[in-house]
Write a structure and sequence with these properties.
Largest sheet: 8 strands, mixed
Number of strands: 25
CATH class of the largest domain: Alpha Beta
Helix content: 25-40%
Low-confidence stretches: none
Distance between the termini: 14 Å
Shape: globular
Radius of gyration: 22 Å
Number of helices: 12
Number of domains: 2
CATH superfamily of the largest domain: Ribonuclease Z/Hydroxyacylglutathione hydrolase-like
Strand content: 15-25%
Length: 434
């Protein structure tokens, strides 16, 4: 069997006859986050055609760099889509409503996909998931960008020692910032919460904890092309950064876009001079999106959506941000007072101010993905007081919980709490005979 990385968090498993069995997170064309994120290397047309014949595609979570509808449409209806079991399930339900074959994989239960191939889904409290793939000669740990805690990783190590002794262990994991960690500004100076070395150290620690044989760079190969997000390219952790700081014991570091034989460990890869980046097409589309942002303005319906969105969590926001929350768009300034539940136009301020493109802001409010504003790389956070940046992380956490439906009522809140408690412990059963 062979394992290949492609796109962003795309993992393709082929059987011994080189037939495609399992694909994950099919961002394989186009862009995401309002033309901010673009792939470092786009799959060749021949590979795209092969992907259409994959039997299964597993989507680990809802973020558009993983749950990519353009990629899913390109795959077509011949593929069966799989999704993790989450407290408020949206992925399989949405795909089914659009005519795709889609189902939910129960948490912590092995599912056979193909002779010699079984998967196990491990959901996390942040509406992400880890995917284990067990094959006759190797076990694959797909962390994508889930970031489990060290305690959970240790539980996984004990499980792998018990259920897959002697098998090659392959880890696929992100290794670069994908949040507002470098987006804070105080007194005209950038405030960064983490350095590149921190991300490399996290990956190396996981490789050692899990006794990984091969690490495949994953879920981090992007280019930020908008004029207001291009700054983030300087903060990316590149493969060269990984190589320079690699300290993972016996774990072998493979290049990006590699094709690994799970039997003997031989591999090939796409060299950087053959990357397909589609820069000219990207430039045209970025320019068109930025023109939309310059022309966009919030209407009364947008203002009301924002007021209701913030108001649903004001009992949490008020003690966290007593001076309020500001929003600065191209043609609009807003300030939310969580104590009074009021939204004032014409003034920003507050404990912090989010600087966001107007059209992206409108879309996030309309479609209920406000938490995506913390991932785009074009959202800047102006710290107007002595507030610690980590409290702004709490703001986006609260907004994301509301996005996913966990704060819409007591019942949904309790479901999420029970789910969060249950998923802290990883009880992984043996997969049985393959």
């Amino acid at each position: 069997m062979q394992l290949q990385t492609l796109g962003h968090a795309g993992m393709l498993l082929r059987d011994d006859a080189a037939a495609p069995v399992l694909l994950t997170d099919p961002w394989i064309l186009g862009s995401c986050y309002w033309r901010s994120w673009w792939l470092l290397h786009y799959p060749e047309p021949e590979l795209l055609e092969e992907l259409r014949h994959a039997r299964y595609c597993f989507v680990t979570h809802e973020h558009p760099d993983h749950f990519s509808m353009p990629g899913i449409r390109a795959l077509g209806t011949g593929v069966e889509f799989l999704a993790p079991e989450l407290p408020e399930e949206h992925i399989a339900a949405y795909l089914s409503s659009k005519g795709y074959r889609a189902s939910v994989v129960p948490a912590f239960h092995w599912r056979t996909l193909h002779p010699g191939v079984r998967i196990l889904s491990i959901p996390l409290a942040n509406d992400d998931s880890v995917l284990l793939v067990d094959t006759p000669s190797a076990v694959i740990v797909n962390l994508n960008d889930a970031k489990p805690g060290a305690g959970q990783v240790r539980q996984l190590r004990r499980s792998l020692d018990r259920i897959a002794p002697g098998k090659r262990r392959v880890l696929l994991s992100s290794y670069s910032p994908a949040s507002i960690v470098n987006s804070f500004v105080r007194n005209a100076e950038r405030v960064s919460l983490r350095q590149k070395a921190d991300y490399v150290r996290y990956v190396c620690d996981n490789c050692r904890l899990l006794a990984i044989d091969d690490f495949m760079p994953f879920a981090s190969q992007v280019i930020f092309r908008r004029s207001d997000s291009a700054w983030a390219n300087a903060f990316k952790v590149t493969f060269a950064d990984l190589q320079a700081a690699w300290d993972a014991g016996a774990t072998r570091l493979l290049p990006p876009y590699a094709r690994l034989s799970l039997g003997d460990g031989a591999y090939t890869f796409v060299p950087p001079d053959r990357y397909r980046q589609e820069a000219e097409d990207a430039a045209r589309k970025v320019e068109a999106q930025e023109a939309l942002d310059r022309a966009a303005a919030l209407d009364d319906d947008d203002i009301e959506r924002l007021r209701r969105k913030l108001g649903a969590s004001r009992w949490l926001l008020a003690p966290l941000f007593p001076r309020g929350i500001g929003f600065a768009l191209e043609r609009e300034s807003l300030r939310y007072d969580p104590w009074r539940g009021t939204l004032s136009r014409g003034v920003a301020g507050g404990d912090f101010t989010l600087t966001v493109p107007a059209q992206a802001f409108k879309d996030a409010l309309t479609y209920g993905h406000f938490g995506d504003m913390g991932t785009t790389m074009f959202t800047m956070v102006m710290l107007n007081s002595t507030i610690h940046p980590r409290r702004v992380y709490l703001f986006f956490m609260v907004m994301s919980l509301h996005d996913y439906g966990h704060l819409t009522g007591i019942g949904s809140w309790l479901r999420w709490v029970r789910y969060a408690v249950r998923t802290r412990t990883w009880r992984i059963p043996a997969p049985g005979a393959l």
